[in-house]
Amino acid sequence: MTATHTHIAHAVAALGDGPLSEPALTAHIHPLFKQVLARDSHEIYLANHSLGRPLDATAADMAEGSATWFEQLDDAWGPWWSEMEAWRAATANLLGVARGDCIVPKTSAGQGLRAVLNSYAGTPRVLSTEAEFDSIDHILKQYAAQGRAELHWVAPDAQGLIQVDELIARLDGMDLVVVSQVFFASGQVLQDIPRLIAAAHARGVRVLLDVYHGYGVLPLDLASLGVDYAIAGSYKYLRGGPGVCWLYVSPTMLDAGHTTLDTGWFAKREPFAYRRPMPPEFAAGGDAWLESTFNPLGFYQARAGLALVTAMGVARLRAYSLQQKGYLSDLLSTHGIHHFGVGEEAGAFITIPHADPMALASQLKTAGINGDARAAGLRLCPDLLNTEAQMRQAVEVLAAMVG
């Protein structure tokens, strides 16, 4: 256990075993975030569904990774590789996965999607929805434009929701389903994912689940789900910043020997032997999905956030998130502000419909309230660093703008 893990574990242990509460979090968890919480004097941060706020330990972890470079030069690859393997194992553990090699480091979720699309020998027939995140939507459309994928789309229903039954009805003749666990604009949590996966597998169709907007805030057990692939990263609720993402490839897929065109020398068997056989020889398991030289400092960057979420437990964080969303919803209702995304059928943020959400978010930012906006509206997401007083202040400022 690193010094980072020990420090965080002691802070979480001080919370006790009961439900999370604002006084306990303020006393024991907020001190882990002194640097970023110093901003609270002039800004209320309610964009925790976007760039999660880093722990103080993150700066020290990143310094450790770079110091290894300065002090050891080429020998730094030993500890850097160990840090990557520790990150893979910890990520797998958080996702209910027994094998760390099922977690393939990527710099973005989109990179993971491309690796899956490029694992098909022919032109895959892909079923997706019109509600996927922009990057996923853009990649799929470019593959279709280049004749590299045949796309079929499911639209939201009259309420703006994606229905699993509609996806199941369209499975025949497909090769791959690409769908979100939590949809980024609406916050909808897709219901009946196990039924979708079972129906897809019964037809020989694989499923790629984009869990980016739920990872770290909704309990998730990829092994129990039986999903073939999943993509996500540390940018949001894992507090690990950009560039530290992953592709999950199930043991079933790995054991079948599937590989991808998105490859490189770290995917080779014994890469440092510098042998060049034809056809290429791949490393065992998930290492066959590695690519060329990676950025090792990212794993240090993601260390503290991953340790905190693991120590606290995602189920416990989800319960507190629902409590905070309920409080925020009551405040909005008191001021007559229409909103959606409350309760267990939505992710961690609440959305306020507005004719010009981007302008509203900018206006709020000027007033010291940091949220963000998508086409569906203004998004606000409290987390364990936010207080009820901050939420009251934010809603009062918002009410003055839209009232």
Give a description of the structure.
Helix 5 (77-94) runs parallel beside helix 13 (303-312) and helix 14 (314-334) packs parallel to helix 16. The model has no long low-confidence stretch (mean pLDDT 96). This protein is an alpha/beta fold and 403 residues long. 42% of the residues are buried. The strands form three sheets. A seven-stranded mixed beta sheet has the order 2-8-7-6-5-3-4, with helices on both faces. It contains 16 helices and twelve strands. One of its GO terms (molecular function) is transaminase activity.
Task: Identify the notable features of this structure and list them briefly.
403 residues, transaminase activity, 7-stranded mixed beta sheet, single chain, alpha/beta
Order of strands, widest sheet: 2-8-7-6-5-3-4
Largest sheet: 7 strands, mixed
Strand content: 5-15%
The count of β-strands is 12
Helical residues, percent: 40-55%
What integer value in Å does the Rg equal? 22 Å
Q: What's the quaternary structure here?
A: single chain
- Secondary-structure element series: HHHEHHEHEHEHEHEHEEHHHHEHEEEH
Structural class based on helices, strands and sheet pairing: alpha/beta
Overall shape: it is globular
N-to-C CA distance: 52 Å
Round the mean pLDDT to the nearest integer and report it: 96
Tally of helical runs: 16
Runs in which pLDDT lies below 50 for 5 or more consecutive residues are none
